Amino acid sequence: MHMARSPDGAYRAALRFEGEIRFGPEYFRLSIDGREVPHRIFGRPLCWSPDSRVVVAQEWLTTDHGEGPVTCAALIDVQAWTIARLEVAVKGLAEDFRFDAQALRYRLRFPAMGEVFDVAVETDAVHAWTGIDVQPRSRSAAFAPSLRPL
Fold first, then answer.
1. Number of domains in the chain
2. 88: domain range?
């Protein structure tokens, strides 16, 4: 189990091992203060916003070795118990999450193509929040807000 405390110490996010991709990384179930995020699986690591309201995780949209990796940055508002998916990376990994001022910065890495894109998203501009307990839409229907390059 991997744990990450929020900066203010009020919340604890835990990743519990769920499985491993053939010849690839492990994936996990996520819980926050013992409350599981249902219907979803995640990769490591987690990153908390400076105000401890949002935790960002790499959400996996498939564990199929041939189809994946298919991931996205998932923002979880721990107070409202809502989640928002950012741009889906087909055959790619959303990773290296960090916050600065009002922006979330991260990378989309596409290993097979040898490409890496740096992304910045103003967290106030994210409006596609949905209840965590709601079954997520398929990745083809997932909302992906327009992102601007750094």
1. 1
2. 2-135
